[in-house]
Amino acid sequence: MVKPVTLACGHSGCRHCLATLIGIETFPKCPLCKAPIGTDVTLHVNVALDDIIGDFNVKCNKSGCLWKGKFHEHEQHLKRCGKFQTACANDGCGEMVARERMAAHTAQCAKHKLPCQQCGRKITRESFEEHTASLCSNKRVLLHLTLHLSECSERAVRCAVTGCTAIIKQKNMPQHSTNAAATHSVLQEGRSSVCGA
């Protein structure tokens, strides 16, 4: 009996249960003696009875949990009990899982959302492979961008002549080769003499 209340007839019951009864019945009655309760009654906790019940020795009713303690400690225990079943928080899952197994469940849950490296959207694990393989529009953009960058005339490139430190736009490379021909020749001759050719 959680938060016991005492009715005018003298019988006591759980506040939540009696409040539910009063809320759904047109003419609520005491479940034991059938005396009318009334719909306007205020249910005050019977403090003396609550203290007595709070000192009862109880054990956790969750399968596999070995916790034992006082009834008034039970609510706090349930907030951290590893065997307590909670619903998976991933949208669309809702599977009931023991708290101690929730991290493992979440790590493999089909409804867990993962960030797509191409588009940044969060995609459920069950849809992730299909999304990254074919649906992600940014993947196509990235493939085209990679191809474009390898051919782009505006990209900066290093001169291919060993010893030349020039970094210029790809479209200007022919002009650079013409303008720096003498320097490139000297660099090539120096390289040849170092190599012994």
From TrEMBL:
Zinc: is it a keyword of this entry? yes
Query: Which keywords label this protein?
Result: Metal-binding, Zinc, Zinc-finger
Could you state a single Gene Ontology molecular function term?
zinc ion binding
Q: Does the keyword Metal-binding apply?
A: yes
What residue intervals correspond to the zinc fingers (TRAF-type)? 77-129
Boundaries of every TRAF-type domain copy: 77-129
Task: Give the lineage.
Answer: Eukaryota, Metazoa, Cnidaria, Anthozoa, Hexacorallia
Name assigned to this protein:
TRAF-type domain-containing protein
